[in-house]
Amino acid sequence: MDDSDYYPGVLDAVMEQVRSHIGEGRVADYIPELADVDPDEFGFSIATVDGGMYSTGDQARTRFSMQSITKVFTLALVMRGHAGSDVWKRVHREPSGNAFNSLHQLEFENGVPRNPMINPGALIVTDQLLSDTGDAVGELRKLLCEETGDPDLHTDNLVAESESRSGDRNRALAYLMASFGNIRNPVPEVLDHYFRQCSITVSCEELARAGLFLARRGRRADGSELLSVSDTRRILAVMLTCGTYDAAGEFAYRVGIPCKSGVGGGILAVVPGRCTVAAWGPGLDAKGNSVTAALALEAFTDVTGCSVF
Ligand code: GLN
């Protein structure tokens, strides 16, 4: 069956599962600016490796805050190999089993975070990207603009300021790591880039398109190499094992493909060799993952049989 005959039926099945749950969960209110988002919004997009785009939900083209989903893209930029990057000496690759902003393990693990998909690990990656390029958020924005084909993607400054005002926990994480010598740039500068990075907005369609290089084994739409095949596979492994924080086991069980969530309510998922899926619903569960986006992805893999297992 042709993709254009197949995916509309998949979208119907996804909506069928999700419809009665729209509005469930709690919008992230620890970042005050995110608390104003309408909890009833929902969007869902599938981007295929050969250029197809299939969307459902009223808000598939509405922009939302990327938040932790940016952690995948900054990691890709660092792994793309700027000279001197020794990022894997500074952050591990193990699931944390703790909340994404927990300080707990850092104190007795010498300021080396468990993985790059949680806040302390992402602060290390941003610090590395800053050392490698001089402008971490600028490089990230450039990558996202190139991959979506939209030159207009940008940071929502109100969200970034709101994050900064309410960002004492991230400050604590960064200074604790700095006390172990694991942050190289001035902490306020790293935090500034991190807050602006998290506050970039995208729609489901844009996010699905931006992530397609991960489904194409590191290749961009024009066939050129963004990341090596091996590094792409490694990023997907980190997404699967760590991308949804202390719910990564639950996501592997329920969804079964690499995912990365953010407290803006978005989730990016990748079916290697085939497609990416972006889902968005602002209501979060207790671990900070979107309730409706998770349900939608679960329905998607159930209906399509897509799984890395
Ligand atoms: N900007 C958010 C924070 O640092 C990102 C967290 C997330 O999306 N899980 O708290």
Automatic annotation (TrEMBL):
Superkingdom as given in the UniProt entry: Bacteria
Database matches in Gene3D superfamilies: DD-peptidase/beta-lactamase superfamily (3.40.710.10)
Coiled-coil regions listed in the entry: none
Keyword Hydrolase recorded: yes
Keywords: Acetylation, Hydrolase
EC id: 3.5.1.2
Enzyme class: hydrolase
GO molecular function: glutaminase activity
Binding site for substrate: S68, N119, E163, N170, Y194, Y245, V263
Catalytic activity from the UniProt record: L-glutamine + H2O = L-glutamate + NH4(+)
UniProt name for this protein: Glutaminase
